[in-house]
Amino acid sequence: MTGYRDICLPLICFYFMFNLTYGEKMPSDVVLERLQQSSSSSDRVDSVTPMSALENLGFLHAFLASLSVIVVSELGDKTFFIAAIMAMRHPRLTVFAGAISALAVMTVLSVIFGYAATIIPRAYTYYISTALFALFGLKMLRDGYYMSPNEGQEELEEVQSDLRKREDEFEKETSTTLVQDPETGVIRKSQKTSAFMLLSRIFLQAFSLTFLAEWGDRSQITTIILAAREDVYGVVIGGVLGHSFCTGLAVLGGRMIAQRISVRTVTIIGGVVFLIFALTALFVKPTDTI
């Protein structure tokens, strides 16, 4: 009996509370309330649709901005020449894997640095980044105007000389490695180097050289600026694809592409691209971007 009372009493209380809340309403009031609920739900649906479209637009804008800026910044850059020269001496796939791994890590780190700046009000970061884009564009136009036509060839020779020194140091180290024959006891130079060790060394060399060359580079600073004002996923994907495109060209084309690229022309085009993205701030408000 006690258990039955424990079950029924809450049900009875709920029944009376329900009647007190809704029992005094007229049918017209109930109909009006339902109409208001349906209209509010439709308003929510209408508000969600523009928001999703705005998010897609923000991702696309960030993707295109990151992709185009990286391409014009990396073509003819030091990292481009590193991949091109190493691919002429070592397996292309290993060189590409080491270089793109370093560039992908650098892109993610740069986006993290830029995203940390979002604690500042968006209006400030938006216009500050726009001003930096304009300054970069003007500086690239100035550098391209006064740049020597042989600038790319000089950069190529500098990177080639640096890599040749590293190769000579490695060969000197391996040639002085001595081992003792366990059977005869004769000490001789080691001639055995596993393929895995060789590929690992090439991968690490491509990774370290590319990472150090990219640190503090214009493309890294640009990625940080983009991450502070654009959709971070679009910046990451666009940046990695841009680096993959440039590194792939360097690895496949090698010295031929490096010699045919006019660094002066690429620099001028890059300055124009930077200025175009800076001018978009005149037509897009900070609240309209994602």
Characterize the structure shown:
The protein is globular, with a radius of gyration of 31 Å. The chain is 80% helix and 2% strand. The N terminus is likely disordered. The chain has 290 residues and is mainly alpha-helical. The longest helix is centred in the first third of the chain and has 48 residues.
Short key terms for the protein model shown above:
290 residues, mainly alpha, 2 strands
Mean pLDDT: 73
Number of strands: 2
Number of helices: 11
Q: Ends: how far apart?
A: 63 Å
Which geometry do the CA atoms define? globular
Architecture blueprint of SSEs:
Blueprint: H1 2-22, H2 27-74, H3 78-89, H4 92-116, H5 122-146, H6 151-175, E1 178-180, E2 187-189, H7 195-214, H8 218-229, H9 232-253, H10 255-260, H11 263-279
Antiparallel strand pairs: 1-2
Subcellular location: Membrane
InterPro entries: GDT1-like, GDT1-like_CS
Transmembrane segments: 47-72, 93-117, 123-141, 195-213, 233-253, 265-284
